Structure prediction request, 807 residues.
Amino acid sequence: MPEVRASSLEEVQNAVRAHPRLRPKGGGSKPALSTPKEGEVLLDLSGLRGILEYTPEEFVFTAYAGTPLMEIEAALRAHGQYLPFHPPLVGQGATLGGTVAAGLSGPMRERFGGLRDFILGVRFVDGEGRLVRGGGKVVKNAAGFPFHRLMVGSLGAFGVMVELSFKVFPYPRATRTLRTGYGTLEEALSALERLRGLPLDLLALDLIPPATLEIRLGGFPGSLEGRLRRLQELLGREGEVLLEDEAHWEGVRDLSFLEGSPIWAKVPSRLDLIPILEGLPLGPRRYMAGGELLYAGLEPEGLHALRRAGIPHLVLKGAEEALFPPPPEAFFRKVKQALDPRGRFPLG
Amino acid sequence: MGFLQELKALFPPGRLLTREAELAPYESDALTAYRRRPLAVVLPERKEEVVEAVRLCHRYGVPFVARGSGTSLSGGSLPVEGGLVLALNRMNRILRLDPKARIAVVEPGVVNLEVSRQAAPFGLYYAPDPSSQPVSTLGGNVAFNSGGAHCLKYGMTAGHVLALEVVTPQGEVVRLGGEGLEGAGPDLHGFFVGTEGLLGVALEITLRLLPKPEAYHTLLAAYGSLEAAGNAVSQVIRSGLLPGAMEIMDRLAIEAAEAAVKAGYPQAEALLIVELEGPKEEVAEEAKLLSEVIRESGALEVRIAQSEAERQAIWKGRKAAFSAVGRLSPDYLVQDGVVPRSRLAEALREIGRLSQAFGLRVANVFHAGDGNLHPLVLYDGKKPGELERAEALAGEILRLCVRLGGSLTGEHGIGVEKKGYMPEMFAPGDLEAMERVKEALDPQGLANRGKVLPEEVYA
Prediction:
């Protein structure tokens, strides 16, 4: 398969100008999105890496798009900070750019919001090889068209991201996880629904079918036990408390529960959708962020069932068409035309 | 049939304004230094009427501007001379409020604060709270990606918009986004937010609601210098705290607020307000750390709100500061540039120097947590040349913000006021990309023509 490597801005621009169709790839942790299709040249961006600026006091960093999240998180951790949207697949080598292109958040998105809430700025190379900047490097900014938000979930349709700026937050000083099982899905859902509406500042609120909730709390060591007790009282059950929960949640956000499934998919979910989704032949799965985000491991049959039911999703591993349904023509097509007139990039 | 005749067929008398006296109130927004006479104003009550009006504009090549309450401080809803104004205040229904899904679906003319009012019985609220929130509408908030005092922790409007129904400048109706927090595919609704009406008009907006924080801890600290207050903000951040809001006022702003609402503020060179919010146990722990940090920051006096009434009293002065400055000066310009938080002290020093050099007073009120400055440049419009001097000073402040690594605007938008400064922040290639997107969606350049992008676009 034809392949070109780009480790600098100029090399990205040259590659874009030289090849009629390109498929960008970072760490390759989402093969459905980074494997070239017929006629595409693979643009390997794994060499475009490194943190460019990081001022802990600003809660902001800027890094090259091909930087592995593991590297970024290590730098943040040294200053007691983290990416609050808890990007998945870090352990598998996910990069910053790939995470933005796929638009992926993990379980801890429940507390402060998803990737779209934390991206501040971008520099990207458009379909004509031109460098474009959107957004900025400060936590508040309303100047110009927000190209950085356009990149979220774009699958690289509008350009090759070169550099990204993000907001970060202080990492909770201590965490606890409460796991409670219910008799039926209905009971678990009703508890989930109740917790969603309360001001408990949960770090994560997950539903593991058929009927288990995992709830993660984070904060000051001095307040955590009290909050945990209150949560137990609210739910009317002791549950199981994980004191050392870090490794557990690292496994969750790396989607280790999908291991063994041929197809991995992200499904934007909702409370009212969960009973419907639970009626489909989906494999191992977990609903994150109060039921709003499902990661499921599928057999081809499960993928067909999702498509038949008309439920939007993104395939991360193992299918022909990664995105269902395609983006709304009337708006998407014109923005695409403006930035990638020759259709060099995906979703062309 | 001509354009106006066709409009008449769409809008009954009373909802199509064409007489001079009727048009006058729509000639400007809150940036009153700019005025333009529109051809007509229509008052749609349903989204179909907006769509039809936009389609007419498209057919006849008539530029249009959508507006709500006209609170834009950057001239964002200034009419185009001879164009149509779509005044959307009558589209003010909350179409659906679903506490279980934690969403509200609203028309663009709904006033920001109304959403939180309606959501309050369910323990929910709409987080983005621009100072104009009792008046400004969500359509405008979406256009400008409005902010407020809580952006560091909660982000701006863009993060809280889950879906949009939009009419494009060519009259096509599209739905962007969905009803949940997550999506699959490009975040087109996120991209639409903040494009200041250049890419279409929002017809329906789906908002995320959040559980209202359980407890607040509000602290007011007085300092002997602006710099000391600015440094205190950095110390709070370094301690690992994440307050919901951090606000600073300088002496001039304090005096103005006192004269206006008698908030009972201590007399000082600078006041810092810090507000923690969250679960009560958590806030109690954070408050202990905050009090240590503030003690070490050299505060001259510290007050902690002991009740909701005391908390409101602290906020009352801050919220009144803008309008109160009107008591100190016949006119003022307000800017809203952003600097990296660690450069706050430097920015304030430089603003002080510029104020001296230009011979104009500058009052400072700002969202210190996110580096969003609000220098109020005081002037007297009756004195020849003073407005121009004030504009030049404001421009220098904007350049300063960009030079320090910040932004031209944190929450007010570029509008007509700051478009000349866009090249300071963006390279020609960045602006060209914006122009190309604008042109692709609006080849005739009808939607909010003359805003955001520097002049040569329309040459």
In short: Chain A touches chain B through 87 residues (CB under 8 Å).
